[in-house]
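Researcher: Here's my situation. A collaborator sent me these components and asked whether they could plausibly form a single complex. I don't have experimental data yet, so a predicted model of the whole assembly would be a useful starting point for our discussion.
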Amino acid sequence: MNTSPRVALFVTCLVDLFRPSVGFAAVKLLEQAGCRVEVPEAQTCCGQPAFNSGDRATATEMARRAVALLEPYDHVVVPSGSCAGMLRVHYPELLGEDPEWAGRARAVAERCHELVSFLADVMKVEGVEAALEGRVTYHDSCSGLRELKIRHQPRRLLETVEGLELVEMDDSEVCCGFGGTFCVKYPEISTRMVDDKVAAIDRSGAATVLAGDLGCLMNMAGRLKRLGSAVEVRHVAEVLAGELDAPSIGESGSREA
Amino acid sequence: MQPTSHAFKQNAHEALENPVLQEALGGIRTGWQAARGRAAGALPEFEQLRDTGRDIKNHVLAHLDLYLEAFTAKVEEAGGKVHWARDAAEARTIVLELCREADARTVTKSKSMIAEEIGLNPWLEANDVKPVETDLGEYIIQLAGQPPSHLVGPAVHMTKDEVSDLFHKHHGGERLEEGGALVGEARRVLRQRYLEADVGITGANFLVAETGSIITVTNEGNAELTQGLPRTHICIASIEKIVPTMEDAFTLLRLLARSATGQEFSAYTTVMTGPKREEDLDGPREFHLVLLDNGRSKMVGSAFQEMLRCIRCGACMNHCPVYLAAGGHAYGWVYVGPMGSVLTPQFVGIEEAHPLPNASTFCGRCEEVCPVRIPLPKLMRHWREEQFNRQLNPPAARYGLALWGFVARRPRLYRLATGMAVGAMRLLGGRQGRMRRLPLAGGWTGTRDMPAPQGPTFMQAWKKRRGAGS
Ligand code: SF4
């Protein structure tokens, strides 16, 4: 009998669309940790855009679909703090009044985890086989930090990456200004926020900035690249998995095309 | 105050372009924000204290009518008089009548957000009663003719340099530059006003049901002088300020000072019960308490009830990256920052205040520091739901969201759409790894490049890989 946990990877829209390498890095890390990984085919989006735009009905319906899709698995793992937070914290809220769904939503929520915290806290992974030479700084994405309390897990694992020197930037826990549709609804305020973040990254002297959420990463990379910065931007999973062939976010390379 | 909340975006634009304002706002980060962190860190039971604070407030809100009755009875027992005001207009009328009864020409005022909420100063002025603000910050903005931009530091948006100019213009004499000298000058001017005033008007931080006392905290002692020197003291307070016991009040005071300014306790905490008694050395002859509802009793039992726990400490705005960029005036009404984004729509209507609940990334820092654990992002989301249900969002946003929702609920269609989107973006310059411009995404690409998709979607690539593997 196979005792390794059966894990559903919830890919998230942005990884699916923009950066599949994060998904593959997640699969690699999960398999290394001894999980059987499946990617449920009928998954779409966790429903956050609807939820945060006030469209509760659509968000609730999407929550029901996702719960039904994900409940057969031992665990659900998400390479994003904000989408994991949606499943873990907000689904039970959305479906809490619905007698048929409340219990099911809670059961899935309890088994749903953000990738890095799952590796560290559930699978008890203590180190990784990966190498990256240079100074790296880590941005705490808001939902991961505040809804899921992810703070030490990525740092602990990063410290086991060969050659990697982890430096803290100022205000690593302050929002980068992404905020889903916020960044296009209030571009000036959003830009000011990401500029503060860019300044903190610069002061840290890091050559690479990492985070666990592609939304924040694209925002930081987008601004850094527009300003002509050479700082590389990557999802933490890519570094932990040692999957560094793909060019960093916003850079082109020879790998594809 | 005529709200300009609808123009939040434009207001914020002007704020971002104003280097003096930005300099002033920068001080909050190194000042109050850092101080709150130190104070919270220095008190091992701080998190527990927050739970207690939340529970005290929840308990009061569950039994508000009982505590209000008990409080009123105690105030009257002590010789004070309680006036109920349903809304802002009633409260203004009551205060004006009381001023007239006292034959008041000038009144001193200590800081009161309720006075701002009901627009008291312009009303008194229009009726020939001259209000003089005695809190330094309030005094400054009164001279400048501006509304407050912060709960605790109403003039936090101004630099010392601006205050120097302002004082020089209004007080004449030499232009003072040093902070201490400016404070000294304000004191000197105000001292005279305390003695001239016929009525003193204060707010209250807490109303204690057990004793009928009002509690005010300041760092300048001005509330004490405002309520103690004139013949008549009028306190205006909203109904949710009530707490059951003196002990509860002091629990909340410990939270308030630490959360607001990082102090263990504010410099002056004044507890006052009724007017002067025979044996008292000083105090007002008459004490009136105006209890304001202004929509609050309707919030009890609603989705917004938790907002009534607010103790007006300002921590949420001190930690809000949006507030720190845009400043308080951008919010366009009395209450600003995250707490204002929840409260302002209550008072001026969501039509007027529609941008406020949307001007948040839901980063959650406000909730993280709120001493009474108000889930501010959740409450802002409630307003977004209200907007959505009443179709107050711009049509383009509504249709876009509806289309997205339609597709996202149909996995096969979704696969098709994401595949096409990736293909299109790759065509638009994806080979450079990023795009400088993207149709319909000017909000993003105005200041940021858009990273290009790597290639086929993950789902496509995964299918291929697993297909080849098995
Ligand atoms: S909402 Fe909370 S943090 Fe903000 S002013 Fe009120 S009590 Fe303070």
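Model: Some features of this prediction you could bring to your collaborator: Chain B is about 50% helix and 10% strand. Chain B touches chain A through 65 residues (CB under 8 Å).
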